[in-house]
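debug: dumping io for the single-chain case to check the tokenizer round-trip. Nothing else runs in this session.
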Amino acid sequence: MSETKDQINLTVQRFAVLTCIVALLPISIGALVTTLKAGMAFADWPTSDGQNMLLYPWLNDLRHTDKFVEHGHRLAGVLIGLVSIGLVAVTFIKEPRRWVRTGAVVILVAVIAQGLLGGMRVRMDAQVLAMTHSITGGLFFTLCFLFAVQVRSHGKQQVESDHRFSPITFALGVLLPLVVLAQYVLGGFFRHLGRMLHEHVAGAVIVSVLAIVVLSVLLRSDSPSLRRRGRWLSSALLVQVFLGMGSWVTKLGFPALGWVATVNSPAQNITCSLHTVGGMFLLATASAVAMELINRARTGQIVRIADLFGHQIPTEGGLA
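debug: decoded output
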């Protein structure tokens, strides 16, 4: 018996979510690699100490943390590559929509590019490439997250007019992920190059204020889906703020309270790594908000994109 269109869509949805979840593995381990400064535990790539990456006796390195974590990162990269190939296969077999197939192919290409970038970082032993690899990792997860959200929500949206969004608040919502990305880059400069700490702290304040402004509209929206995006964003922001404070205390200490940071302590390594992953979640949720706003603006459900230039606030009568 052939599958119905709904069943086909459900299969693709599940695989898209699986891809998003698996993408967390290499990214999270990669954050720990950076924290431990284990990026050059192996001086070669794609081999590991001259051995085939898949045949390397990984478990023998349990006592050598740097090699164990770095090789785990490489194996996790292989895993997300295989899952991405599966995503492409599933979409081409079961999904007739071109944009879904294109999105799956883009994810696979991004995985390949990310792997090559990681390999170049090792072969050239360049911290700038390590920072770039980390930033593109966050962008890759955001891509997977948006793809999963779009596939799951496509065709389910109802017309939910919401006139709380003026052109200004709409623009701030679309601007938010760009500001978060800039903050993510500043964090990368500090983690990898030891620079721009104060700029990163200032960026955290800017991101928080901008996000709160957008959240003040999202959480009061007439649209359930916009409120849901708002809850995602508020949760990611709250967790990231606490992780940021924890990273500061465990890495730099807090003399006023007599707290002295211990280099490479478990608390420092775990908190700083989670802070990087938290920034990635904040970028992904902020991007989901922007995507939702743009999609609704295109269908006239909140504010027309053209109104951004005409400064015309929508009226209760709807948009022409």
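debug: round-trip ok. The chain has two domains: 1-156, 162-320.
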